[in-house]
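Dear support,

Our group has been running a series of protein-ligand predictions, and this particular one with pyridoxal-5'-phosphate is the one our PI (initials K.S.) wants archived with full inputs and outputs. We had some confusion internally about which version of the output was final, so please treat the block below as the authoritative record. The input we submitted was:
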Amino acid sequence: MESIKRNILLNPGPSTTTDTVKYAQVVPDICPREKEFAGLMKTLREDLVKIVHGDLNKYTSVLFCGSGTINIDVCINSLLPEGKKVLIVNNGAYSMRAAEICEYYSLPFINLKFPVDEIPDLEKVEKTLIENPDIALVHTTHNETGTGILNPIREIGALAHKYNAVFTVDTTSTYAMRPIDIEKDNIDFCMASAQKGLMAFTGLSFVVGNKKIIEESAKYPKRSYYCNLYLQYEYFEKTGEMHFTPPVQTIYSTIQALKEYWEEGEEAKWARHTRVFNAINDGLEELGFRQVIKPELRAGLVSSAVYPDDENWSFEKVHDYCYERGFTIYPGKISTTNTFRLCALGAIDEGDIKDFFKVFREALEVTGVCVPVKYNA
Ligand SMILES: *Cc1c(COP(=O)(O)O)cnc(C)c1O
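Confirmed final output from the archive:
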């Protein structure tokens, strides 16, 4: 097996993969309607539930062919009963995406907004639930990837359940990294994609959630054909297959990635991401960069650094310098502050981050940015 050029991706997914995962895509051609392929998907679906410690009698996973956003779309359009309302607990770009999905489907929703650098005020969440007994679905984002803030999902989930609402959580940027316990965390539905925590490829996304609620949703309004949760679930239960063509090669690589996940282990993997994250924060601090999210509020996977006040600073130039040397940095996603992000996803370790900061420092020096960087106020 020839090794493939290794790039260090510090963007929030897709992430750096191992060569064994890359090569797992190279398989003999197969029609995904063969029994052999359905057999692979059965184990895969169970593994996806086990990652969040779900009881297989109570929870299932439903696969979709698409990027991570398809999961948000599926959950929101499929799990809202007629005449009911969605509550989005929103402190960032990814929860905003859920609000836009409500808008596109013309669903009644409350967009409960909080500042991007603060965790949601639980009293306000509860007050909204009390004042709106027609809320049947509460949605939020676990690690708001736009900033890197960690939301208190267990507490929000407890409130959702206290007022009889289903709780859906976008865990795309924590799943298979930061440990999740679906039941203890009060999650009815969580979601992710193969290219993030699992360190495989784009094309496979999945919702992990409560079977009974999916079965109940059979009688809810059908607002989408391709993105209906019950339709896809029912097809899997009947045939063991995806309703429409699955991303065959991505599924093979995800199966290899899961094998590597179990080999590394939940705890060791989270410890590795934490090492990487700490190395990123140390490196930023050494160069004088400020971050948007206070240390105690960080989810431990995404750092959002503020652009320095230096007329020579150019994200583009610094990006290109690093990119040419095998390191990818990523712009921010906050409308009010100019930021860039460095993320601790993927098959990387702290040594890679040390190598990155040598190149990053050089990029600053070559482009004439003052080191340590400066801020006016
Ligand atoms: C990456 C990500 C998604 C999915 O984004 P796509 O561009 O559709 O892959 C959704 N939610 C969160 C929190 C994410 O980090």
